[in-house]
Amino acid sequence: MSSPGQSSADITDDIRGNIRDQALKLGFDAVGFSGPDSGDTAKRLGDYISSGYHGDMGWMETTQERRQSPRGLWPDVKSIIAVGMNYGPDEDPLLLQGHPDRAVVSAYARGRDYHDVLKKQLRQLARSIAEDWSCEVKLFVDTAPVMEKPIAQQAGLGWQGKHTNLVSREFGSWLFLGEVFTTLDLGPDVPMQDHCGGCHRCIDACPTAAFPAPYKLDARRCISYLTIEHGGHIPREFRIPMGNRIYGCDDCLAVCPWNKFATPTPHDALMPHIHLRRPRLKDFAALDDASFRQVFSGSPVKRLGRDRFVRNVLIAIGNSGDVSLGASARALLEDASPLVRAMAVWALARLLTTEAFETLREEFAHADPDPKVRGEWAAG
Fold it and tell me: Where are the domains of the chain?
């Protein structure tokens, strides 16, 4: 609360300090303040969508007008409190790529769903702000058309690297983001400057050449998009580069030199579940819908659905070079999902001898009602 004789600037500083302290006590690891101005976000977003880089994510286009500015989402907003929570992995996220019988799940999805974790804490912060200073608030955790990374950069939490993700000098690539919009005028922090310099490790590390230029991502080529957002059959040109990545991809994040300052997450809820530390492909391939929902209860992986998940697992099985995993693919040739059947065929074509594959083709190909599955049989 203000004291007699305090200037308005001093009062604002006190409020900001109070909010920052509250956020840190609630478990957030980074806090900053941004104004509602969007800078060049609208132009960058428009260029991205007009280039078609958003792929099947049609919601980006339908929400473009609201997404391009915080005021487009809420005209009354005067300030934005941006928060970050450290989800730093406790081991190299790329480690399991050297174990082709195992499944690689992106580091962000190995613990509890971060939406739930952050939103619980943000609600407490937003409620306290509204009660203490009689203002209006709205909170967001990747649940509305909010350009979180540009806001985080404006609030000084980090900068958007050449891979388009946020990079923090303190936490490297590993920050979950959330925002509280408010009618309080808190003034902005100094935006974080770009510290990528001449480095281009993230661009070089991409297995599918998804960066047409620094600071530009073509989602249609990105393994994270293909394994999570893309609902159909994954194009053939990307299947082998996927390796054993079955949910997301951390390659561009993991190679960033700023990760040398990162520390493992201190938050129990964000630590990896035991079944996602060294998961076996054959175990995941055996999941039906009920067991999939049980295994991934409370996980962001659950929203993918069993069929797309097993589609990804079968691509990894095809890339494994492990003939023993052929039995897992063979068991799915009569699965109810054409997505699953098609990738079972592709995996078997990669693992079996020509003679063994031909035997299966004679048994199954003509009877399959789906043309894309028959196409996989024909392509061999």
Answer: 8-279, 280-380
Catalytic residue positions? 142
C-beta separation of 165 from 108 below 8 A:
no
- The answer to whether residues 244 and 250 touch, using CB atoms and an 8 Å cutoff, is no
Sign for the CA dihedral angle at 229, 234, 238, 239 comes to positive
CA 12 to chain centre: 35
- How far is it, in rounded angstroms, from Cα 336 to Cα 166? 40
The tens place of each residue's pLDDT in the chain, 380 residues long, gives 455 556 677 788 999 999 999 999 999 999 999 999 867 777 777 777 777 778 787 767 777 776 778 898 899 999 999 999 999 999 999 999 999 999 999 999 999 999 999 999 999 999 999 999 999 999 999 878 888 999 999 999 999 999 999 999 999 999 999 999 999 999 999 999 999 999 999 999 999 999 999 999 999 999 999 999 999 999 999 999 999 999 999 999 999 999 999 999 999 999 999 999 999 999 999 999 999 999 999 999 999 999 999 999 999 999 999 999 999 999 999 999 999 999 999 999 999 999 999 999 999 999 999 999 999 999 98
Say how far apart CA 369 and CA 373 lie, in whole Å. Answer: 8
Q: Which amino acid does the sequence have at 306?
A: R
Q: Are 109 and 299 in contact (CB under 8 A)?
A: yes
Q: Which residues lie across from 102 on neighbouring strands?
A: 280
